[in-house]
Amino acid sequence: MSMLNSPLTLPCGQVLPNRFMKSALSEAMGDRSHAPTPELERLFATWADGGYGLIVTGNVMIDRNQLGESGNVAIEDDRDLEALTRWAGSTRTAGVPIWMQINHPGRQSNPLGRTQPVAPSPIALKVPGAKMPAELTPAQIEDIIERFATAAAVAERAGFDGVQIHGAHGYLVAQFLSPLSNQREDEWGGTPEKRMRFVVEILRRIRSTVAPTFAVGIKLNSADFQRGGFSHEESRDVVVRLAKEGIDMIEISGGSYEAPAMMGARDSTVLREAYFLEYAATVREVAPDVPLAVTGGFRSRLAMEAALDSGDCSMIGLGRPAATTPDAPAQIRGEVVDTLDSYRRQITGAALIGKVTNTKALDGLIDLQWHTDQLHRVGAGKPPDLKRPSWKTTVSMVRRNGSDVLRRKRT
Ligand SMILES: Cc1cc2nc3c(=O)[nH]c(=O)nc-3n(C[C@H](O)[C@H](O)[C@H](O)COP(=O)(O)O)c2cc1C
């Protein structure tokens, strides 16, 4: 039997039916008050029928005044418990566990928002239009740790099977870990051990709030791919520490908005598609038992099976293929296809919609939004449209963000 079809038991006792994980994809489908919508339920029910062993939601914010993107779902208390319960229930008929990814954007908050961004240190993101964040006080840090635990408790009450802390891609947890964004000299920064304290406290607080059978995982950067930044060595030390603290799964990714390694094939080859797999193999040496997922670049059965067989990872994370081919795992596991068709070109490094502008950063944004459009189509009961032209994506991107800005102006 292919390893892809074998179940995986996590430290908390939860059993995942197979090795495919739908990685977090920010859906931008929350309603005006940041509650989940029926469209989200339809999208997740579609994925549940698509053969996944674990489904992770897009990032849900723990503070409605600190959003990452327009349309984020946010949880501060149980005011939206009914809608959250329906969302959690959307994968139950198919028997697929669902985890909620929980996040605070820190200095990476939506630049179109009106609120003051916060961060470990007053160092702005090096992208056009970024605001200077305010340095968090120790009391504000404590409040954010508590908010992570509250969101996890509400997720558990709603019926989610676990949470995943977003510790990657330059958001607040990653900001605390990186020496480039955390230059504090108190107990929250200064040494790798102190920079790690924020994430360890979040994990402990969540664990003390939820049942022992509720899964708690994290998405972690292998590095932030910037000179003087969070390195592979430091990332490995964090893995070892989190494994000791009883984390249920570590999903490995990398990069941030400043250096978006998570979306691009840095050193992939045709056979070794997944670009963080080599790092994962080195993690295995120092943390042999922790369940590891690797996300970024997986497109063919050969590469997926080789990754599992080598023991370098325990779960195969899929991001963009989940948007274009909602039943990708069923197709691969059922041997209907060897390679996810829509991505044949991407294995050699080309983006699905290709080059749109002359600016790499703008093309990256359009690529993200093009995949978000596909999620909205599936949420509306339509199939993905792989021929969707980039101009249509530009229109929907402006519409999604523009209506949010107008709404904020009116309130
Ligand atoms: C539209 C879109 C939204 C995303 N939203 C999130 C998110 O909310 N949280 C997260 O951890 N990663 C997010 N990602 C990154 C993916 O989870 C994944 O790491 C990345 O797409 C690389 O994997 P892939 O090559 O399989 O697409 C997003 C990616 C896309 C394309």
Structure overview:
The protein is an alpha/beta fold and 411 residues long. It has one domain (3-352): TIM Barrel (Alpha-Beta Barrel), CATH 3.20.20. Helices cover 36% and strands 12% of the residues. The protein is built from 12 helices and 13 strands. It has an 8-stranded parallel β-barrel, surrounded by 4 helices. Strand 12 (292-295), helix 8 (301-309) and strand 13 form a beta-alpha-beta unit. The chain is globular and about 55 Å long. Flavin mononucleotide is lined by residues 23-26, 58-59, 101, 166, 168-169, 219, 253, 262-263, 295-298, 318-321, 368, 371-372.
What sort of overall outline do the alpha carbons produce when their principal axes are compared?
Answer: globular
Number of helices: 12
The tally of domains stands at: 1
How many beta-strand runs? Answer: 13
Please tell me the overall pLDDT.
90
What is the distance, rounded to the nearest whole angstrom, between the alpha carbons of the first and last residues? 57 Å
Hetero groups = flavin mononucleotide
CATH-level-2 architecture: Alpha-Beta Barrel
Largest β-sheet summary = 8 strands, parallel, barrel
Strand order within the widest sheet? 3-4-6-9-10-11-12-13
Q: Which structural class fits the helix and strand makeup? A: alpha/beta
CATH superfamily: Aldolase class I
Q: What is the fold named in CATH at topology level?
A: TIM Barrel
How big a fraction of the residues is strand? 5-15%
Order of helices and strands: EEEHEEHEEEHEHHEHEHEHEHHHH
